[in-house]
Design goal:
Layout: H1 7-20, H2 23-30, H3 34-48, E1 53-56, E2 59-62, H4 64-83, E3 93-98, H5 100-115, E4 120-125, H6 128-136, E5 142-145, E6 153-167, H7 169-172, H8 177-182, H9 184-188, E7 193-195, H10 201-211, E8 219-222, H11 226-234, E9 240-243, H12 244-253, E10 257-258, E11 267-275, H13 280-291
Parallel strand pairs: 3-4, 3-5, 7-8
Antiparallel strand pairs: 1-2, 5-11, 6-9, 6-10, 6-11
Helix pairs in contact: 1-2, 1-3, 1-4, 2-3, 4-13
Protein name: LysR family transcriptional regulator
Family: Belongs to the LysR transcriptional regulatory family.
Keywords: DNA-binding, Transcription, Transcription regulation
């Protein structure tokens, strides 16, 4: 007699469809036939009373209801599936890529427990676009990406980076607080910037999100490493927008101050990305990262 299908089975299949963008890839990853995956999805949609995906020639597109469901249940389903085999031995080498700053401060510490289960890692640092190109070309197995990739990958949001505008105390004291309350862009425009790139990608996004304009400030330093950006800010070279996980120790030490306090700080979503075809080792890494409680970044 066939075992009764559980809600966990339905949700696990839903998540594979959501993350991979197709029923075919979900069937492969779940070890099921495509009709079986279609049947599970139909049952879940019937239970919820509304569709979760729009079918198309290149796969499926999640509905807003699917986005909401994935956010609410994804981490919990991953944790339950991991709990079924918490200490199993793993084999193989996983080639993983990510931003140097995030991987150094958060990514590698998060992966360390898997080395005790037998996994080995080859880590590549780089920009999201370059890393996703390497993933597509099978030069990497997993990417922690700040950019949501196009179709052809399995991508799962895992956490959000929160960006803060910080500067050294000496420069912070030059900001007119009355003007800051009414016209923050003008109050801050005299401050030199320390930027990651000449195009000011992070700073420009902060200014547009919070002030509705591009920064008119001069750029004092450009350096392609956010840890070096923070070091230059602490030394007094200028101000910058940095992820909380980098800035918070300096804030606690008093070596920088938060210059602007938005009601909702700018966020940047990080994704765990794999190709459609994976290995048990790659799956274990992706599940581990997806199920982790990253806290506020």
């Amino acid at each position: 007699m066939a075992a009764k299908l559980t809600d966990l089975d339905l949700l696990a299949t839903f998540l594979e469809i959501y993350r991979g963008g197709s029923l075919t890839s979900a069937a492969t990853r779940r070890g099921l036939t495509q009709p079986a995956v279609s049947g599970q999805l139909a049952k879940l949609e019937k239970e919820l009373g509304e569709p979760l995906f729009v079918r198309g020639s290149r796969g499926v597109t999640p509905t807003p209801r699917a986005d909401d469901l994935a956010r609410r249940v994804g981490q919990h389903v991953d944790q339950l599936r991991t709990a079924l085999d918490p200490g199993g031995t793993l084999e193989g080498t996983v080639r993983i890529g990510g931003a140097a700053e995030f991987m150094t401060v958060r990514g590698l510490p998060a992966l360390a427990p898997l080395t005790r289960r037998g996994l080995r890692f080859e880590v590549t640092f780089g920009l999201a676009g370059d890393l996703l190109t390497a993933l597509r070309a099978a030069r990497l197995d997993v990417v922690l990406s700040s950019v949501r990739p196009a179709a052809g990958f399995t991508a799962t949001p895992v956490t959000d980076e929160e960006f803060l505008l910080v500067g050294p105390p000496l420069l912070a004291r030059t900001v007119d607080q009355d003007v800051l309350a009414t016209d923050p862009a003008r109050a801050l425009e005299h401050l030199p910037l320390v930027a990651y790139d000449g195009d000011l990608p992070i700073i420009r996004r902060y200014w547009r999100s919070e002030f509705g304009t591009r920064p008119a400030n001069t750029v004092a330093v450009t350096v392609p490493d956010l840890r070096a950006v923070l070091a230059a800010v602490i030394a007094g070279a200028g101000v910058s927008a940095l992820p909380r996980y980098l800035a918070e120790p300096a804030l606690a030490a008093g070596s920088v101050e938060q210059l602007h306090h938005p009601e909702a700080p700018p966020l940047n979503t990080l994704y765990v990305v794999t190709r459609g075809t994976t290995t048990p080792a790659t799956d274990a890494v992706a599940e581990h990262l997806r199920s982790r409680d990253w806290g506020v970044l």
